[in-house]
Amino acid sequence: MSTPEAGDEPGGENVTGERPEAEPVGVTEETTVHEEDVELERTIGLVGGLAIGIGTMIGAGIFVFPGLAASEAGPAATLSFAIGGVIALLVALPTSELATAMPRSGGGYYFISRTMGTSYGAVVGLGLWLGLVFASAFYLVGLGHYVVAVLAEIGVSITGLPVGPHVLLGLLFGIALTALSVTGTENTASLQNVIVVVLLVILTGFLTYGVLDATGLFGRESVPEAFFSQGQLPVLSTAALVFTSYLGFAQVATVAGEITEPKRNLPLAMVGSVLIVTLFYVVTIFVATSSFGAERLGQFGETAMVEVARDLLGRPGAVLILAAGLLATFSSANASILSASRSVYALSRDALLPRWASRINLQYGTPHVALGMAGGPILVLVATGQVEVLAEVASFLHLVLYALMCVALLVVRRRDPPWYDPSFTIPGYPAVPVLGAVASAGLIAFMELASIAIGVAIMALSYLWYRYYATDIRLKGDV
Amino acid sequence: MSDRPAVLVPIRVLKGESIPDGVPELLADAHVVLLGYHVIPEQTPPGQARMQFEEQATARMDELESLFEDAGATVERRLVFTGEAQKTIDRTIYEHDCLAVLVPDAVVALEDVLVAVRGTVGIDRLARVVSGLFANADADVTLYHVAGESESDADAETLLSGLADRLAESGVDPDRIETRIERDRKPLAAIIEASDTFDAVVMGESDPSLATFVFGMPAEQVAERFLGPVLIVQRERPESE
């Protein structure tokens, strides 16, 4: 099979007559080059890329899920997280290869639309945007829980509200974060780097102590418990639930157009952040289930880690983990809002969303419409306060994306168009992308029916939008 | 002319920053690398800014380019959307092998130029910039050196006369070259004070040190206080050439 030359340049127009932007003529280590000597500087280095990946991921898995996961899968929740990590890695590798061949804004959406065609791209792109919206809403509800816990720790309890206090706080933070991004405080990314480093230091210290304690080094017996206390099947359904904790490496891909030395830094940032985060998750769940036992852990809910820390280190431990939880959920929500805004930009660039969606605010220089298209729906979702459903829908949409990214790699390798020249090629082809696709799609089967239904509905609506709005759009690589 | 020194002229193209009067004439004999850049906050992807502003920026660049071409310079241009202006400027200096960077400021009539000479390091590049730009101009060139404590007057004179000879060889009229040596002063303060009576300043970029992190590069401090244009001769970049 060979790609017709005509398919290599974008064309066609949408309902309102807008056309996709021309593709850049080249990519260097420091820039994206367009015609007429116009360049886009790449300014995010390896550390920044890792910080986006780790910063997005480390929040949910450690600070929201341990309680939920333990109550569903028992101590085997450790295994659930490990499974999630392996699947994430199976997808992160193909994503890295695609990213080094196409280091452009939009990440997964870009890869799929350029290798499998505009219709797939549209469904995935809109799905990615909304998936990030669901993920951010989930992180914000988690953040709300942490603020409530902090207030409880200092003796303040909020009562008498029509909604839960964590929902109200989540809404407030959602508004604040969106406003912060729009009014354009500088150094939000550098702040992210600092937050991630502080977070990793706190966690490393805490987990080291926890592991020593759990293995009985301090003379304390860990709670004896059957590993598969809830049976084996919940291990997989829990893996599906907690997969939200691994969505961060896709966020690295959404800023692929801004990463320096993309050929080296993109694979390192994506694969590296998955490995680091998986390690932290597995150890965390091990420590958490060892100190309390799964059942009591489950009763503590979203802020179970605080009780684990209190148990291990007393009140200072609780305060430390509360602080870390605030930082982590904050940085996850922040990174997801920014990524969602970049997805909107990528879609608008390709005329799959109106061009005005990527307008830039003249006063602040920020994409206020795109940020609003992230922040607005996020608030609606936060208002529902449904942590598990939000997490699962986000997982569902991302799993579809991941499965298709693996397929995209298989497709593009088969077709081998002249422009496809990745500098990083994955080991274990075709086994790795095939396994990645099967595993991603397989996890979906273990989800709640309601989440699958919402996810499918979003994809169906996305497809209808594409048919209505942009049927004629032809993107590079479209056949 | 083949030995036109490449001079970078960075302009924040959409912020109304312009080329001040006299600058195109100052660089008439240069190979101008015109860098139009637009700084965007981190939450804005550069591509998004390009979509919205490219047309406007390109039109502005056309105007600026013709200003320099009309004065006689050769011009190469770049339009960059960036989150980090300094990174963009550094990269452009490196990629185009620019000898000097211009910090633009108005100059009414170019009559005398102050050339701050630090030492033998980088003197070759300094000479290439001064002779390339001013060999055909009518301006007087004053070679200025603040001698260090361990440096004898003879050493300082050798340094400056060596440079003067070299400039004369490259076509600068020897009658227009003057030398001036000072001592017992902090070089930076001395240069700033001396620059008062000149129309333009040429000086070297200094090595980054702890003090430059705190107070900024000396050349930048001069550029801030001096009212005319400052040409900052760049250190040799590693791996360049």
Q: Could you name the key traits of this structure?
A:
heterodimer; A: 479 residues; mainly alpha; Amino acid/polyamine transporter I; B: 241 residues; alpha/beta; Rossmann fold; 2 domains; nine-stranded mixed β-sheet; globular
Question: How do the strands and helices of this protein lay out in sequence?
Answer:
The complex is a heterodimer of chains A (479) and B (241).
Chain A: E1 26-27, E2 31-34, E3 38-41, H1 46-63, H2 65-73, H3 77-101, H4 108-116, H5 118-153, H6 165-183, H7 188-214, H8 233-242, H9 248-254, H10 262-292, H11 294-300, H12 304-349, H13 368-384, H14 387-415, H15 431-444, H16 449-469
Chain B: E1 6-12, H1 23-26, E2 31-39, H2 46-71, E3 74-82, H3 85-95, E4 100-103, E5 112-116, H4 123-134, E6 140-147, H5 153-169, E7 177-183, H6 187-195, E8 200-204, H7 210-215, H8 218-225, E9 230-233
Parallel strand pairs in B: 1-2, 1-4, 2-3, 5-6, 5-8, 6-7, 8-9
Antiparallel strand pairs in B: 4-9
Task: Report on the architecture of this protein.
The complex is a heterodimer of chains A (479) and B (241). Chain A is mainly alpha-helical and 479 residues long. Chain A has a single domain (43-476), classed as Up-down Bundle (Amino acid/polyamine transporter I). Helices cover 68% and strands 2% of the residues of chain A. In chain A, helix 3 runs antiparallel to helix 10 (262-292), helix 3 crosses helix 15 (431-444) and helix 10 packs across helix 11 (294-300). Chain B has 241 residues and is an alpha/beta fold. Chain B folds into 2 domains: 6-98, HUPs (Rossmann fold); 112-233, Rossmann fold, CATH 3.40.50. Chain B has helices at residues 23-26, 46-71, 85-95, 123-134, 153-169, 187-195, 210-215, 218-225; strands spanning 6-12, 31-39, 74-82, 100-103, 112-116, 140-147, 177-183, 200-204, 230-233. Chain B is globular. The model of chain B has no long low-confidence stretch (mean pLDDT 86). The A-B interface holds A 21, 30-32, 34, 36-41, 43, 104-105, 181, 184, 186-189, 255, 257-258, 338, 341-342, 345, 349, 355, 358-360, 364-367, 370-371 and B 39-54, 58, 77-84, 87-88, 91. Strand 3 (38-41) of chain A pairs parallel with strand 3 of chain B, so a sheet runs across the interface. Chain B: This is Nucleotide-binding protein, UspA family. Chain B: Residues 113-233 form the UspA domain. Chain B: It holds the Pfam family Usp. Chain B: InterPro entries: UspA. Chain B: It comes from Halapricum desulfuricans.
